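Lecture 7 notes: from sequence to structure.
We start with the chain below.
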Amino acid sequence: MENNKFSIDRFEGKIAVCEELNTRKIIDINIELLPSNCKEGDIIVLKNGKYEKDIEATQNEKEEISSMVNNLFKKNN
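Predicted structure tokens for the same chain:
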């Protein structure tokens, strides 16, 4: 799983439920292994055995979702 990217779907107690972005496989990660500033929707990457927040990928994901929502509302008006 080295250098794989994951999206944090939600937190359940001390577990972050994450989706591996390439395979769409759901995995549970102990929150103690994540950077302290992670939240739902963030993209994390496993590098050299350590999880890091991918700030650029997280921002891109948020912009893409925002664009999709805006387009959806435009179609319904």
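Points to note: The chain is about 25% helix and 35% strand. The longest strand covers residues 5-12.
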